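User: quick one
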Amino acid sequence: MIVQIITWLRDRMMLVKAFCIAVLALLLIGDLFVPRPHPHFLGDIIPGFWAGFGFIACAVIIIGSKWLGTAFLFRPDTYYDDIEQDRKTSPSQQKNQSTGEMK
Amino acid sequence: MIESLHSGSFFFHPALLFFLGACVLPFLKGTTRNIFLIVLPLTSLVVVMFLGYGSYAHVEIAGVDIVFGRVDRLSLVFAHIFCLMAVIGSLFGMHLKENWQHIAAWGYVGSALGCVFAGDYLSLFLFWEGLMVTSVCLIWLRGKEESLRAGFRYVMVHTFGGLSLLAGIFVLYYQTGDISFGAMPEGVGLAAWLIMIGFLLNAAVPPLHAWLPDAYGSATVVGSVFMCAYTTKTAVYALARTFAGHEILIPLGVAMALYGVVYAVLENDARRLLSYHIISQVGYMVAGVGIGTEMAINGVCAHAYAHILYKSLLFMGVGSVIAVTGRSKFSELGGLWKYMPWTFVFTLIGGLSISAFPFFSGFISKSMIIAGAMEDHLMWAGLLLTLASAGTFLHTGLKVPYFIWFNREEPLFEPPKSEAPWNMLAAMAIGSYFCIMLGCNPSFLYNMLPYPVNYHPYTPAHIMESYQILLFTMLGFFLLLGKLKPKALVGLDIDWFYRRGGVYFMAFCRNVPAAIDNGFVTKLHKTFFLPLLRLGANFSNWNDQKVVDGFVDGSANRVLRLSHYLRYIAQPGSMSKYLAGMLTFLAGIVVAAVTLALL
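Assistant: Done. Structure below.
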């Protein structure tokens, strides 16, 4: 059942896209008519503030995190598995140390 | 209605049910066991619904009052969701033939309930450690070497947290003589910090958080469903109990909410991504505890309740994918929509709930914390938390479903023949039901909260605001999709310090101190200390032979010679000498007697 619905939607990708854009546009228009009895923030005064907030938040999170990742944090995903390799190849350096004769 | 249920004085510790059940479980098989797996958690849920307010199960040990059963509104809301989650989790794991995971899971649930009803720090500590011991079994039962190592890291990190908590309890007892588990008294300084560190570690507050993705990404499929619910939420409960209104928690919580979101972008493993979102979601709760108003504490409890349901639902969805395909990395998954459609729908419901879509459970709980922040004039906190919630939708609502079920026309591997077992789907269906039910009927949850609720999430402005944020985030997601393509990479996190840093430390030890030891110290030993020792040995040898032995031998020789003389005189050994001696002696006596008589 679900597979049929998804297939039906996937076959009409342009329609889905048009519908989504229509919803987004309706949200922006609808914002002008929503009652706000106690405005206490910019979002209650500027129509479409939260739409912009959501879009910019998304862009900032993706671009900012990716930048952090490529600049500092990314490693190949076998990074920690290599530790075992390191441990196996490292020489064990225990030596028997001679001590003075005791009587 | 709820008040009347709890007005009596009925008490039976729900944790006891789970501990006893875990003991009985190994003896049950087949259908009996499966029925038992559902009946026991359901019984515990009923027990929790009828517990009477009050303080029960007092035990006095060495003059200290140990309370195992403190029942109030705060503990009941957590106990309620813990038992409900046990029902869902046990159903989800019902297909497992062996019992070990269920035993560990029930021990884990019992420990969490023990923490929730604990009325003093010692019993809290007891169950706190129980949480760690039982949950590490859920990691190890996966049976992979990687899980074994992750389990040991988990144990070590949590031992640190547990010891910090224990030290804090001792200092608190020393300072105040009271270890009742309640709001932290003023001016206890060190004790409060130590206890807080213990709690924050279990709540996975950065920089004490890296155990969480590490452990939850390595646990068994069923184990991670349980683990995502209890450890962090028990810590949230403990924080709400002791540190409500401690303002330091606000920035910590907000930073946490954003930290999880940033790392979720970098994550390629589905369960590790969800783990970072636990950190993010618990950040809302920690911030709510820091705000500490009635509204915020209500929000914390509501969010914990809703969070357990949708996060376990997400872990169940991803867990089913792992169980069926054996894969958890986005770079290896994709294209499953034809093969696991129901799992997709349930995971999507979880994703919409965590993203706080109107009419899903996150909407009625998360917004309470944000509203609590706004009400307390913490505009910056409210805005940053809203930013984090956009990120949440971006990952859990969009990235997880998209890269597991779509992204490719067909999977890269042999497509699965069927969906997950029926019990997994049923557990997900129940979780989805509760996610939607709470969203549509918030009063079910609001009636359980510790304080009277004076909050209405469904105002037109709030719905409009949420839809704008979420749908424009979605627009951003699809526009920037190219940047999000999964790659086989990991992002470094704090666990680097004990995973890689530990290796470097060992290498340092091998190279620097060992080199100093081998080079300088050995040389010094050979050229200076060893000759010095030899000199001393020679001296003592000479001293021994000439001085000591000379003295000892000399005196021995003299005694020998003296005894020779004595023997020669006293015991010559020939009859004639004895006779001569005796006669001489007798003659002496006679001479003496005659001399005396003459005188």
